[in-house]
Structure formats: C-alpha cells, structure tokens
Amino acid sequence: MNKKFDINENSLQDMSIEEFDAIDAGLERHKFSDKYTKRKEQYLKNYRKEMLGFTSRGFVKVAVAAAVLIIATPVSVNAATNGELFQRLWGNAGKKTTSSYEQTFVEEEKLDDNGKPSEYTVTIPKAEYVEADTEKAEELIGKNIASEPTVIKMGDTTMTVMSVTRDKNGIVAEYTLEKEGGVDCLNYSDLDNMAKGAWFNEDQNLMFAFREGSGKIYVDLEKSTEEKLYCYEYMVDNRAGFYGAENDIPKITDHLTLDYTLYNLTRSEVCAKIEESGDLNFDETPYITEEKSVNIPVSEEIETTVFTSKDGGNIEISPIAMNVDMNKLESDTDEASIDTLYKMEIVYKDGSNYLITDKRYPYDTGSINDVEEEVESFSYICGSLDNHVITLFNRLVDVDQVDHIRINGTDYTVK
Questions:
Q1: Most buried pick, 189, 199, 310, 405, via CB within 10 A?
Q2: Spatial CB neighbours of 213, under 8 Å, sequence gap ≥ 6
Q3: What is the DSSP letter of 50?
Q4: Which of 3, 4, 29, 79 is nearest to 357 (CA)?
Q5: Quick one: CA dihedral 145, 147, 148, 149, positive or negative?
Q6: What is the spatial distance between Cα 131 and Cα 396, in angstroms, rounded to a whole number?
Q7: Alpha-carbon distance 402 to 353, whole Å?
Q8: Which of 179, 161, 184, 170 is nearest to 258 (CA)?
Q9: Strands 157-166 and 288-297
Q10: pLDDT tens track of the chain, all 415 residues?
C-alpha cells in the first residue's frame, strides 16, 4: 500500500506514529488542541501514556539542583565567538539550503493485503538559509543574549547550555550534550532536522526539557561528533502558546528552568512496566532515580514591534520571532488558524524579501503552481490556543527595515 501525504494536508487521523516520526517539516505545524486547556504537564502525561509511551519529552517535579556557572568575559557576543553563534543559530553554518522534493518511506513491519511492506510518500519543501551579517546581528540582539554557560550533569550525560536568546513569543537555546562512548539520549538525522527535530531515544534512561517553552531540537551534524552533540533548540514561549488558557503558565523572570529525569531502566522498559501494572503514574514511579531542575540564566527579552492590517489584525515581531493573530484573516473555513495559513512573507524597504512559507492552500490547490515551489524557511512554527501562529525565524530580521508583512495576501504595516 502506497500512501501519499502532502505536508500541507492536515489529515493525521489515520497516520501511524512511525509515519508521523518520519514526516517532513510541514506536519510539524501542529496546533494546540482543546486538551491544552488543562495544565500542559497533565496533557503530556496522558498523551505519552495513550499514544507514545515515553517517546515525547516530559515535565518533572521541581527539586533544585546545583549547577556550574562559567561566567563569560563581559565582551560582546560577536567578538567572543567571532560571529559563530549568529552563523550557527540564524545563519547557514551547519545548515544547507535544500530544494523541495518527494521522498518515499517503507515500513517493513507493516504489510498490506498483498503481504508487501507499506509505503508512504511525503513532500519536503524548500528550506533556504542565508549567511548572517554578524555586525548587524550584534546590533540587533547582542545585548539580549545570555552567554554564561551552565553545566549540568545528568547521569553519564553532561549538558552545557551555552546561550539563551528570547523575546515574549520565542526562545532559542544553544547547548551541547556529551557522553563518553557516544551520546544516546537523542535520535537525530538530516531528515529529523528538516522535520520535527531530534527526538528522545526510548532505549536509554534520560529525559529533559525546558519548562517555559517547547519546540524543535536541531542537531548540528557538521560540528557534532559521536561523543559531543551541538544542539540548537527553537521554542515557542508557553505564554504565547497558551493564550487564553485557564492555568498557570511558567513565566520567565531571570532564568529558564531545565528539568531532567533519570530512570533505573530504559524508558521503553519503564513504559512496559507501567502498562503492565495499570496503576502507576508515569511521572511518579519506583523507576525514577533522580529528577531535578536547574536554573539557566537569561538576559532581558528582545522588544517586539506591532504591525497591523486595515481590518484590525495584528502581528508582533522581533528579530528572532513573529506572532500572527489569525483571527482577523478571512478563510474558506469557519475559522482561520494555522491550518489555513499558506503564505507568509516579510518585505523590506529596499524591495528584498524573506519568504517564510509558501504552500498549497488546503482549500485552494491553485495557491502555488508546483510542489517544487513549496517553501518552509523557518526554524519552528506552532499554533496557539486562540489561533495565533508563532514562528521562530531561521535568520535575523531587521524590523526597522521592514516595509510590510504579507500574510495570505493581507498586508500589515507598522502601527
């Protein structure tokens, strides 16, 4: 059986976990469902139990752990890193522009009625990366980057958070993972980088997550080795993702919180034990050997600028992220949402542009002419509870030089 999934179609109901894990970047555009009206921790706990076992990242109870702070010399980030930080996080170092193409995957363990392995085809859109202007980057966000490395020992794995950058909608964290004999807590590949990012390996005993946001882990395959991974995590701030939620959202003050959990068995074994017992809680089991939280220093958040449309729609934008209110956009469906967003473009005063996404509109396949023209040039994108769409850019945006922002044909100008 050969199933074909366009990344812009939203019919995931019949898709297996294996298919979803292999799917390309378009299906990363998940929208928070009504389940998120309760605490995010409870949602993830139930979702893991019902759908993924322990394959998704979890959140743990707070037990403050000691961490080592290496205080950076108080010089500019650009001078200290020779611009490498900007090129890795928002440039083209360790990343490459790829054209749109289709790829077929075979599931050997799933057979069709004729006894043949199931196949499915996905469309992977173009992703364009550009070189960062390091002097301009220093000017735009240099003072807002926290670059005091924090070293956290998590069993046999050492995590070093090198830098954190944020605005009110998005967070970008740069860190390394080291383990003698090879880092095994993450599964990662070129395809994962193009799709949903690295994911936790269930055949080991560690889980970790930043409490105040969630998103995508990009592993720099060019710079990484078997025993040391260079990771860039692009996250939506929970405050942006949970607009309208009736619960307590962890807020960033002077730090991010890194939660981690260690088990005395592999996570797949723990999952099997819990399913077997039927009465154990996923986050409160006899198999947890250590669960702690570490504070990661942050700097002041980057300021955002508001752009508005003639119909009263608004966009919040900073050099690293953008939050679009979809509620004022017309749609062929009952309500506009991340599912009805088909084109986002930033147009600068000099006439140049940053095409963030351009895809076949699910309700009008004539939005673009060819699959090969589909574009997804961002680091992460996610929908909020109340139909906002938050995008983490894959390059820095000089907001002062933006003439207008065009969303689905609607123009927004500075307020």
A1: 405
A2: 170, 171, 235, 236, 237, 238, 241, 256
A3: I
A4: 29
A5: positive
A6: 10
A7: 9
A8: 161
A9: unpaired
A10: 443 334 333 333 344 444 444 444 433 333 333 333 333 333 333 333 332 233 333 333 333 444 444 333 333 444 445 589 999 999 999 998 988 877 787 777 777 778 788 877 777 788 999 999 999 999 999 999 999 899 999 999 999 999 999 999 999 999 999 999 999 999 999 989 988 899 999 999 999 999 999 999 999 999 999 999 999 999 999 988 876 555 667 778 899 999 999 999 999 998 888 888 776 666 667 889 999 999 999 999 999 999 999 989 999 999 999 999 998 887 666 677 788 888 999 999 999 999 999 887 655 545 554 556 789 999 999 988 888 999 999 999 999 999 999 999 899 999 7
Output the CA torsion sign for 372, 374, 378, 380: negative
Amino acid at the residue 185: C
CA-CA distances (angstroms) from residue 231 to 86, 128, 159, 267? 14, 19, 10, 22
Q: Which residue has the tokens 């199931």?
A: 118
User: Tell me, what amino acid is at 97?
Assistant: T
Q: Which two tokens stand for residue 254?
A: 């002077």
Question: What percent of the residues of the chain are helix, what percent strand, and what percent coil, each to the nearest 5?
Answer: 20, 40, 40
Its sign, for the CA torsion 32, 37, 38, 40, is: positive
